[in-house]
Amino acid sequence: MEAALVDTSIHGTVAYKDVAAAHFDGHPYAARRAIDKLVGQGLLEERTATASEGGSFQTLSATQEGARRARTAAARHGLEAGQHFGAGWGKLQDAAHDVAIYRAVRVARAELAAQGAMARRIRLDGELRGIVARRSEAARARAGRAAADAERRRAAAEYGLPIGPDGKVLFPDAQLEYTVTDGDGRYTFGRVSIEVTSPHYRVGAIAAKAAAGFALFGSNSKAVRNIVRHAVRAGKAATGPDTNARGGSNRPPSDLFEI
Hints:
9 helices, three-stranded antiparallel beta sheet, 7 strands, 18% strand, Arc Repressor Mutant, subunit A, alpha+beta, four-stranded mixed beta sheet, single chain
């Protein structure tokens, strides 16, 4: 149950069925009993959201107490002490996208684990934007606009965030930091930047994110087809996390993220 709470608090809004699949082997009775217990303890909340193509689905979010409990459990799950844990819901209209991000991160973590890598920190879009904005604004207050721009670029470089041709920082939906330890105890640090695209993503946006080295996932089958078509034109593979943080893997787009 603790791992389910940790995941939910990191990601904000997750689908009930995804938590059941990830942490309870898809067993409906075990999942329902455990999640009801977490809700009863005041650690999780459950509500209904609307799918992007109609219909509804159940979602979970951590409470303030749930986030506090998750924070104390971070080290037991291999996460850094600085891992951010949040409480409360995002925007209801963003629920389907939030759920798709969680699924993409789960796929990335599974592929990394298969190669002996351990996830150490997960940062979502909002956290990354906040880091860059705070550092830039602090520099602006000290020394003006030029200093703010220089600090913005330094912060982007520090977190592996590319700068687009227009000078703007490109932010992924999520960034997964990991380490790989070899037989001699030496470890290598890496990042995977993950972007979940919808069918409404413009061609230029898909190509730009692919060229930036983001691992692209489609939120449904149409979005996946768009990635295949436009990311390949950008000289990048189409879908899936690249464990060397250089863009998509070479596997086919078999992982769809429809609700």
